[in-house]
Amino acid sequence: MRWHDALNPVGMQRVALLAPADQLRDLLVTVADQGCVELDELGDRRPGAAESGAAAALRRLGRGGQVTPLLGRRPDLPAWEQDGRADLLAGEAELDARAADAITRGRVSALAGWAPADAVRGLTAALAAVDASVLVLPAPRGVDPPTLLSDRGPGRDFAGLVRTYATVPYRDVDPSLLAGIAYVVMFGMMFADAGHGALLLIAALAVRSGRWQRLARLAPYWLFLAGAGLASTVFGVLYGEFFGPTGVVPVIWLSPLENAVTLLLVAIAVGALLLAGAYALGSVNRFREGGWRRAVYAPSGLAGASLFLGLGTLAGGLYLHLAAVTVAGAVVAVAALVVGYAGLLAAAGGGAAGASQAMVELVDLVVRLGSNLVSFARLAAFGLTHAALGLVVWQGVTALAHRGVPGVAAAVLVFVVGNALTFALEGLVAGIQALRLEYYELFSRIFEGEGRPFRPWHVPLAPTEA
Question: How far is Cα 246 from Cα 240, in angstroms, rounded to an integer?
């Protein structure tokens, strides 16, 4: 799978579906069974509109909302009603509703909609069997296609992370893969323990194996669990944590409790890197949405990115006592503030009220930039909490282990229960905090609007008809 495909929604194509008017039903049955077209709704959906024969029969059976619609090749409403086939009647009612959306001119009926570009060829072949055809149309101006994220590649396992925040606009970059990587890194930094990470890896493999029915619903997220477990294991090895400071794993990089300030600075540095990536994606998205003008002036575009870069360079120059770097950072920051204010002023409509509003929003932009960066300090804070809980449990174990057989038994109990509580509590906290950082600090810069999800019409043929 190419990177271009992994970082973009599935390409959509505007299509028209054509068939002889007397074969419109065959066209609809084929399209419904294929399940790859989102049809435009043009018919009368108001309450009190004319009721189709299938809908009336379904109402008489009294099971309208209790069945899964199915399709039959040839309609036989009286027989279906007599046999209680509410599923076939519900499918026929959907066909009737879709038929109302068709436009008929002379002997030809047509419907319009959206379909994935790579599904058009298969759809064309299927419709040809019923003397229908597909006509590829240019996309209407000012109308964005619906969004469908790819179900191929590793990004599909992280797509839920983005979907719960917003539907990716069709023109934007699909950040699922990058967001998933960022999430597991942040989670691992807070849940840093090689033993606990190994447990997550084992759980991921158990979900992946499919041997336990109760874990089947977690199957789509096994890679997510595996990534979180791997990141936790790596950071646990770096910190020398294996079910606490047991000494099983030596400290390779630093001990969190002994180097709290260093860990805090590293967390902020990681946050700065992630924010820079979010600004880069945001700038690309603003360009795709509105060209260079929008990309340059948007607070989540180049203006915001330049302000972030300028303030960072200014702070670095002051810290290192480098006058040239300090001046360069100040110049970039001031230029970014001017450009950002111009963009905010234009968005506010100009005038005195617009100028005041733009100034308030500019101050808010600077304040939020600092607060967002500081928010990443929680990567260190919760990593320290995890290490502290592990230390408390391990100290209790070592204190009991030298008191004979009862002490050893008590030590084992403390070790198991203490690590179970730490695993559950810290896993929940790390998961929530990583999600918070993803949504509020990163996604708020990547997205400015929301797309429309692709909802294809799909009603399968009844098994006896297929």
Answer: 8
The per-residue DSSP string of 204-242 comes to HHHHHHT--GGGGGGGGGHHHHHHHHHHHHHHHHHHT-S
C-alpha to C-alpha distances, 333 to 28, 276, 373, nearest whole angstrom: 58, 15, 16
**Rounded to whole angstroms, what are the CA distances from 315 to 323, 325, 337, 441?**
11, 9, 16, 20
Instruction: Please say whether the beta carbons of 448 and 300 come within 8 A.
Output: yes
Q: What is the pLDDT of residue 51?
A: 63
Distance, in Å, from the CA atom of 195 to the CA atom of 419, rounded to the nearest integer, reads 10
Eight-state DSSP code of residue 453: B
Q: Could you write out the DSSP letters of every residue in 72-109?
A: -SS--HHHHHHHT-HHHHHHHHHHHHHHTT-EEETTEE
pLDDT in tens, 272-302: 999 999 999 999 999 998 889 889 999 999 9
Q: What is the DSSP string of 121-138?
A: HHHHHHHHTTT-EEEEEP
Residues 313 and 407 in one domain: yes
Q: Quick check: 132 and 29 in contact, CB under 8 A? A: no
Structural domain that includes position 19: 13-137
pTM: 0.86
Cα–Cα distance between 345 and 18 in angstroms, integer?
49
Helix (H), strand (E) at residue 387 = helix 378-400
- What is the average pLDDT value for the chain, to the nearest integer? 87
- Distance, in Å, from the CA atom of 248 to the CA atom of 237, rounded to the nearest integer, reads 10
Question: Is residue 146 in a domain?
Answer: no
Same domain, 293 and 199: yes
Domain membership flag for residue 305: yes
Task: List the beta bridge partners of residue 321.
Answer: none
**What does the DSSP 8-state code read for residue 402?**
T
